[in-house]
Amino acid sequence: MPHYLIAQSELPEEREARRRRAGKSSGETYAATLEQMQPGIETTIISPADDAGAALSTDRLAQFDAVFLTGSPMHVYDDSPEVRRQLDFMTQVFAAGTPSFGSCAGLQIAVAAAGGRVREMPERMEAGIARRITPSEAGRSHPLLAGRPPSWDAPAIHGDEVEQLPPGATLLASNAVTTVQAAEIRFDRGVFWGVQYHPELALREIALAIAAQADDLVEAGLADRAEDVEAWSDDLDALYEAPHDRALRWRLGVDGEFAEERLRRREIANFLSNLSALRG
Fold first, then answer.
1. What is the C-alpha to C-alpha distance for residues 208 and 206, in angstroms, rounded to an integer?
2. What InterPro entries does this protein map onto (predicted)?
3. Does the annotation count 205 as an active-site position?
């Protein structure tokens, strides 16, 4: 039975806020997604950024079949004890040689731990839907993106992005807003596959996150009024209930790659099917 380690970088108050809003912390969302995709697996959730978070040795990390890094509000470029603990954890994951996967802040943590750079986005947030993601030349044949069409949309919400990939990394996909939408990082003994978007999230979770940040989206110039954000969030929540509704798909400007759960999770499924090769 596979045993996966899930590392969430939310701090305690952020986890509780997310539970109140969406019913789960980011780590609990990942666990639920993985358990839906592979019934019978075992998952362990840890919080490396916490003061009380128990550090795991390299030998212990090597015993897991894979490590997953979640999204969070963490700013990886901040020089804080929480960020340093999270980066130290990821350095240990690379040293253990355990295959790892991350989304949003998870990608940014792996980038920074391997020597790359993360920054606040210089112009605007990417919120709700990352549009027209396209693979790089390397990405077109990379197993992380197997089955993806020449262009696709994905759930996303972030105000930070990868500025520079570390040595040993391969850019796999980009869009007009964020250059690094998907990447592979090889560092020390480990291999990491990551995306800036959120294949693990249900559309309802994205809808709730958008509604909670309505004022920020108006300030960023992505909407004129909070009421517009709420209406858009309502449509996204309705698509969660009816993913094949043609009128909702048309109104949101999405297709099955975004609307259908199985297709939205392609990158996670591809990672899981390649674990033996990634462990080498």
1. 5
2. ChyE-like, Class_I_gatase-like, GATASE
3. no
